[in-house]
Amino acid sequence: MKAGINSIKIGANKFIAIAILIICSHTVNAQLTIILDSVPRYYTPLFDSVYIGGSFNNWAIGSAAYALLPNANGKPQITLNDTGTIQFKFAHGGWASVEVNSSGGYVPNRTYTFTGNADTIHITIPNWADSYTASTHTVTNTVYVVQDNMWMPQLARYRRVWIYLPNDYYTSNNYYRTVYMMDGQNVFDAATSFAGEWYVDDSLKVAQLAGDSGAVVVAIDNGGQYRLDEYCPFINTQYGGGQGDLFTDFLVNTLKPVIDANFRTYTDREHTAIAGSSVGAYIALYAGIKHQAAFSKVGIFSPAYWFQDSIYTFVKNSTAQFPLRFYQVCSVNEGGSVVYNMNRMRDTLIASGFSSNDIYNISRSYGSHSETFWRREFIPAYTWLFSNSIGNYFIEYMHSDKLSVYPNPADTFISIVHHLKKGEIKSIRIFNVEGKEQFAADNNITPQDYKSTISINLTTGVYVVWILDNNDKLFTKKFVVRR
């Protein structure tokens, strides 16, 4: 009898022990939810995932099983189940894109000790190692990196691709025209540019405020050492070339379908343009001629037609399958050969069947072979190519030497030096990177000739000052506020 009672007690004790183990296992192997409240604005690519790697997965950064997914608020989030103490870090790709601190320096491994309860922690990531720069970023708030390493199957290479979205992209259901641009490093951001940016995002924001319907701009980085190879389909025995066909095939057959599938763009040729400068203009013209079913407009800035004379033969032997508009511009200061070659191309286009009415060909008396010149010419080119869509305002001198702002960076005031006398200013306005008006003054406020001083109460950020004269000519300039 006692033996039976003892066996029952032993069995009961085993049951209790097992129950305790089960309870403890559920308690210790707890759940941790990690939410990234903020990731680097410059640059967390739209099509890239943010990954976590750590002691719990053998530091396998880039594993799909450890990709953070957007939560209901659109913030990257992941839930882990583990015990003890873990160490971890984040990256938006492999280890080359791991998180760094606000100065671009090393970040020690993050740690967390499981408490036995479900827990949530919030984390902010200041910068990524592969995109950190000490320079001030100047992109506006609707410029994004689509993909940091987009695969180019035609060339077996990767490339960064940027996109600018119009002011009202996220507040409307509108569809937009698209402009594809070469040398993407120089299009939007001074921090990544070779010798200054084009201010395309700032210019289009102001143009849209002035009545333009807006445009999506897709900017493709040049390939560095491969730039000349990719931007010319013909071989120059001294400088390279020969890969232009593969590059334009990438634009039309790989990149454009991705953009059209993921963004609200008009996919037809009438709403699609391509543009570039120097050898970027060379490949833009070539792409427009070769892929007439994809492009209807070509922006050609300071074209380097000297690179390979075969471009004239190519155009001569091509037929005008569709109407094409060409905006060709250079400065006389770039040399007589540049002007001669541009005029020769105009004549070749006409001889090939393209209408002279669809070719705008001009040699400016000012400027040089530089981003400063090209950014001044961008809005006139855009306006003409898309049939003066901006309405009553013609942005003639955007970002020219006729307007400067100091101090820059500014704090509590700015002085605007311009070319206007008393009574010639209709309006002065300041916009933030979202295109929202922060300051407005009308009715000839300038207190003296050629200069206006304004007290400002603006937070740290990038802004655009807009001066409209009595002839409805618009002058704009970008400046930075630091508090």
Task: Characterise this structure.
With 483 residues, the protein is α+β, with helices and mostly antiparallel strands. It folds into three domains: 28-128, Immunoglobulins (Immunoglobulin-like); 143-385, Alpha/Beta hydrolase fold, catalytic domain (Rossmann fold, 3-Layer(aba) Sandwich); 404-481, Macroglobulin (MG2) domain (Immunoglobulin-like, Sandwich), CATH 2.60.40. The protein has eight helices and 26 strands. The strands form six sheets. An eight-stranded mixed β-sheet has the order 10-11-13-12-16-17-18-19, sandwiched between helices. Strands 7-5-2-3-4-1-8 form a seven-stranded mixed β-sheet. The longest helix has 27 residues, at 2-28.
Short description:
The protein is α+β, with helices and mostly antiparallel strands and 483 residues long.
CATH fold category name of the largest domain:
Rossmann fold
Largest sheet: 8 strands, mixed
Total of DSSP H or I helical runs spanning 4+ residues: 8
Assign a percent range to the helix content.
10-25%
Integer-rounded radius of gyration: 29 Å
Q: Indicate the mean pLDDT.
A: 87
CATH architecture of the largest domain: 3-Layer(aba) Sandwich
Compute the number of strand runs.
26
What is the assembly state of the chains in this entry? single chain
Major sheet strand order: 10-11-13-12-16-17-18-19
- Shape descriptor reads globular
Query: Would you identify the regions where 5 or more consecutive residues have pLDDT less than 50?
Result: 1-28, 388-399
Distance between the termini: 87 Å
Tally of discrete structural domains: 3
